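Regression report. Comparing outputs from two consecutive submissions.

Submission 1:
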Amino acid sequence: MKYSLKQIEVFIATANFQNITLAAEALNMSQSAASESLKNLESQFDIKLFDRAGKRLQLNDFGRLIRKQAETLIDQAKSLELSLQQNQLSADLNIGATLSIGNYLAIHILSEFKGKFPTAKAALSVGNTTKITEQVANFELDVGLIEGEVSHPDLNIRPWMDDELVVFCDPKSELSTLSYVSDQQLSKAKWILREAGSGTRQAFDNAMQGVLHELNIELELQHTEAIKRAVESGMGIGCLSKVTLNDAFKRSSLIALKTPQRDFKRKFYIITHKDKYLSPGIRNWLELCFEYAELHNTYS
């Protein structure tokens, strides 16, 4: 096109104010820039749009003829700009989270996100750390919230929240009355654990170095609730994130076991692809995640 939207805006403002200085002020332009813009518009098409009488500019017949078209064009351009902005804010947001995070943390953040941005569409996928990492790396997910430590050349990996695993048993277990549980007692127990590839299992294996090969692993399950039910039924002891166990501890349906000789502290992480464009929707989600972490972190 031979004209710009800015030239059309100058034309309309000048027609409204009948003065180039006032038109420039309304558009936050210098008087010289507005005057040059209008001059170029007329010269590009070899036309005159105004009759000039001193500082007053009054539309001529041709100017009046195209004024309505010009105003319609600017209205349409503003409408398009608004649609583009709204689309950015409400574009589909695909979040991935590991089981503990997805079921116990991300759902609260998602609720707050929808409250602040009701037109935004967001989907939450749940899987283990390996799966979520692969999906973020393949651009299938916008953001991943994971429990395990990962290393990937294409991902930005940022520490997010503090967490701690807790060893637990059912109330009828003989371990439930002990002030602490020794490594020897842990080795003799039957274990109900998360599957290999999960962040929880990775953290557990790291914390149990030295006695890991001695453990009696009775079951490996993919779901946190299944592990809790199995332990409640007396099938063995388990080890899960504290955030998944708080309600059960309050009800006394499960009992936390003290293992001071083992360090079960860990971090949750946020991952994004290094080449992923962070849309306003993604940035809003990340901001809410870090605000949530500031409120709920329990140790440094």
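Submission 2:
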Amino acid sequence: MPVKPPRPPSPPLTALRSFEAAARLNGFTRAADELCVTPGAIAQQVKQLEQWAGAPLFERQAQGVVLTEAGGMVLPAMTQAFDQIGEAVRQLRQATSPNRIQLAALPSVAQLWLSPRLPALRTAMPDLVLSVTAMETPPNLGREPFDLSLFFMEEGGAAIAQDVLFPVCSPDLAAKVDSIDDLNVLPCLHDATWAEDWGLWLSSFGADHITPRGPVHSLYALAVDDALNGAGILMGHGPLVARHLQSGALVAPFTYRLSRPAHLGIETRAGILPAPLKELVDLLSGKSRL
């Protein structure tokens, strides 16, 4: 009579992934952001893994968590294992759907920079199936199912354009601007994500006495639309308003421009890029003409 004894239970993959992310990113909150769950869910998964292991993997402190000796010992192997899984998934996608590309982008970049270029991309690459996901923070390309990302970054990536700040508005509103002091009385549009933009530009210009007031939008693209409609003066990010400046729909009432340390850039996975992905990167970066 065959004997089929129960096997020792293995820890759930979700618990292993939660521990690895928390250990690599030095905290439950950052791990939760990467894995799109709550910090409480990460804590619960880590606790489950610690119960399976029979030992703590983190020391809980008032300022956060710190890896125990045991946790530190297993982290390198755990990270390598999940990196290999990510690479295996990427190879599977390339083998089965070579022309399907997943792109992640900052919402404002997706709406104002990428979207106008999509028709030309489809013409240049008719077999391309490009899916775009707008998100506030860059994804981990080694783990998440994205092939490339478009974000403002201070280092890394292939630079597309330098980020430059300067006020923009409709031509009709620009006609009412005679000096920097007019910013104290004319409506100024604000973006919640880049709330410091006005202060940075004014301070660099030497106009700290100006207090710009006006609507605050949570989406930069909505603020740009408001500027196009003449509702106020917006602090423009060069790469995002260039198209409207070229068409004349927006103008710059002041000549001074503040160069920022960040640039709009493309990031891809490390290694040799598949032909369709390389072609797309070349088109987006300007190495090939759209």
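Expected: both submissions complete independently.
Actual: both completed, but the second showed a warning that disappeared on reload.
Relevant detail on submission 2: Residues 162-261 form a domain with the D-Maltodextrin-Binding Protein; domain 2 fold (CATH 3.40.190.10).
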